[in-house]
């Protein structure tokens, strides 16, 4: 048993609600705090002197920095397993080319598909590992990682094998997701229905047998899969015992409502969700995942985060780190910028990066600094938690704790 501390402040996120607005006054801020950990699990949190009296035989670990301790971030939507880059796409966007024009000229998702298929399994794993380690050093202790740049049975399995290898060999937590329904590959002979049926018949059994993931994702959009085909696919995934998340309403509206009606755990993007669908989302129980990195990368409007919160939604914030639309990958910077534009309180932002994001992944033992939770935490060299967001990602954690 160890006592960590003292810390200038511990932000526990205890008692904060999972839905709707949160006022900063609701935050529990423990000054001169300490935290007791045994076998990676938090036993107690409180005033450092009181903790020492309560656990007199414990080893004391005093951090080099008298700073602010907060829970580790949970990035519940990333695409960091890929080969190559899309710098050409970025340059074309700056010259006024649309998403569709870039795709038609050889860029877009399928460009990454070609590069990911051609890279060796070892090189794919090493590049994935380096991105994940960078995320960890920036305070992200749980990372969801999608496939989706293979789009064949063999290549999707190659990606999921790399993600699961990282899961087995990391001190941080990894949640794999199968996004074989990212788009219909150009080299598949048949329409979208035939491709999705191919995935259901030939990939789903492999995912189950090899225990590669219990999560299925689909991109529902004019450039990807139709509402009708997506609904059929989601139903098949649920019938097969998978949890489902959906890329919805990124460029056009309507898919968020479909996702809710079919039982998605989370509905991600939502930049073009209608006013009426905001209320449907808020009442649904699904987690709404804002992806400000894509808005910054594509130069488009943000997810209507303030409206979603005010309607009573559970709002998570994720990076969407990918080689095309969101290459930056700095979750804290993106969340801080989203907060500025959408007028989200620091408490709401913290919730969206921690326990509300955990809900999107159906993980219940991370996201707060409380008894029974994993000791996933990060320390910042400041004496006021507000600085973490005030500096919009320039202030980095000086120490991160995980398993």
From TrEMBL:
<dbReference type="InterPro" id="IPR011059">
    <property type="entry name" value="Metal-dep_hydrolase_composite"/>
</dbReference>
<keyword id="KW-0862">Zinc</keyword>
<feature type="domain" description="Amidohydrolase-related">
    <location>
        <begin position="68"/>
        <end position="376"/>
    </location>
</feature>
<dbReference type="GO" id="GO:0050480">
    <property type="term" value="F:imidazolonepropionase activity"/>
</dbReference>
<keyword id="KW-0479">Metal-binding</keyword>
<dbReference type="Pfam" id="PF01979">
    <property type="entry name" value="Amidohydro_1"/>
</dbReference>
<keyword id="KW-0369">Histidine metabolism</keyword>
<dbReference type="InterPro" id="IPR032466">
    <property type="entry name" value="Metal_Hydrolase"/>
</dbReference>
<keyword id="KW-0408">Iron</keyword>
<dbReference type="InterPro" id="IPR006680">
    <property type="entry name" value="Amidohydro-rel"/>
</dbReference>
<comment type="pathway">
    <text>Amino-acid degradation.</text>
</comment>
<keyword id="KW-0378">Hydrolase</keyword>
<dbReference type="InterPro" id="IPR005920">
    <property type="entry name" value="HutI"/>
</dbReference>
<protein>
    <recommendedName>
        <fullName>Imidazolonepropionase</fullName>
        <ecNumber>3.5.2.7</ecNumber>
    </recommendedName>
</protein>
């Amino acid at each position: 048993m160890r006592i960590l501390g003292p810390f200038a402040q511990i932000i526990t996120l205890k008692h904060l609600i999972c839905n709707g607005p949160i006022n900063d006054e609701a935050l529990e801020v423990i000054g001169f705090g300490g935290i007791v950990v045994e076998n990676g699990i938090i036993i107690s949190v409180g005033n450092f002197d009181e903790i020492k009296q309560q656990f007199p035989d414990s080893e004391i670990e005093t951090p080099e920095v008298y700073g602010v301790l907060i829970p580790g971030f949970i990035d519940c939507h990333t695409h960091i397993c890929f080969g190559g880059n899309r710098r050409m796409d970025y340059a074309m966007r700056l010259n006024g080319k649309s998403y569709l024009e870039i795709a038609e000229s050889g860029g877009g998702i399928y460009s990454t598909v070609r590069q990911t298929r051609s890279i060796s399994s070892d090189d794919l794993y090493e590049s994935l590992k380096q991105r994940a380690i960078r995320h960890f050093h920036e305070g992200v202790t749980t990372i969801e990682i999608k496939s989706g740049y293979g789009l064949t049975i063999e290549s999707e399995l190659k990606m999921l094998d790399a993600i699961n290898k990282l899961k087995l060999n990391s001190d941080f937590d990894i949640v794999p997701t199968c996004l074989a329904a990212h788009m219909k590959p150009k080299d598949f002979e048949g329409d979208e229905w035939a491709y999705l049926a191919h995935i259901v018949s030939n990939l789903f059994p492999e995912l189950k047998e090899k225990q590669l993931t219990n999560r299925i994702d689909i991109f529902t959009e004019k450039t990807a899969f139709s509402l009708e085909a997506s609904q059929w696919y989601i139903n098949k995934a649920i019938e097969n015992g998978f949890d489902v998340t959906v890329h919805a309403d990124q460029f056009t509206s309507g898919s968020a409502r479909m996702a809710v009606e079919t039982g998605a755990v989370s509905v991600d993007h939502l930049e073009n969700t209608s006013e009426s669908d905001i209320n449907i989302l808020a009442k649904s129980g699904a987690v709404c995942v804002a992806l400000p990195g894509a808005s910054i990368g594509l130069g488009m409007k943000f997810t209507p985060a303030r409206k979603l919160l005010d309607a009573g939604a559970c709002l998570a914030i994720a990076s969407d780190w990918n080689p095309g639309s969101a290459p930056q990958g700095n979750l804290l910077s993106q969340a801080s910028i989203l907060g500025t534009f959408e007028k989200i309180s620091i408490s709401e932002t913290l919730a969206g990066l921690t326990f509300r994001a955990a809900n999107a992944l159906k993980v219940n033992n991370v996201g707060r600094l409380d008894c029974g939770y994993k000791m996933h935490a990060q320390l910042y060299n400041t004496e006021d938690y507000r600085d973490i967001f005030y500096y919009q990602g320039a202030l980095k954690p000086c120490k991160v704790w995980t398993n």
